[in-house]
Specification:
Distance between the termini: 76 Å
Helix content: over 70%
Largest sheet: none
Number of strands: 0
Structural class: mainly alpha
Strand content: under 5%
Radius of gyration: 22 Å
């Protein structure tokens, strides 16, 4: 009987840990998504057609951003806020 109680307690603890990890993961993703929404809003505020197309494409491609994509988006926002015309420039070729 004690053995069954131990197994039951172990399974219950494992289920709780999985649920807690799932909650933490969902919470982190929600934060990343909220930050992405804000960053894309900043880009849209630049009011440039090329940037608007980029924002629309980004939303379709990365509806739930990874940490790496969010870093990339932060850098992109910095660059375009500093020089909105940079997106219209031809690519550099040495």
């Amino acid at each position: 009987m004690l053995r069954i109680a131990f197994v039951f307690a172990f399974v219950l603890a494992a289920c709780l840990l999985v649920a807690l990890e799932r909650y933490r993961s969902d919470e982190l993703q929600a934060r990343r998504t909220a930050e992405q929404v804000e960053l894309l809003r900043r880009l849209e505020a630049l009011d440039r057609p090329t940037v608007s197309r980029l924002v629309a494409q980004w939303r379709m491609t990365y509806p739930e951003p990874s940490p790496e994509r969010l870093d990339e988006l932060r850098d992109l926002v910095k660059q375009l806020q500093a020089d909105p015309a940079a997106i219209d420039a031809p690519p550099y070729s040495p």
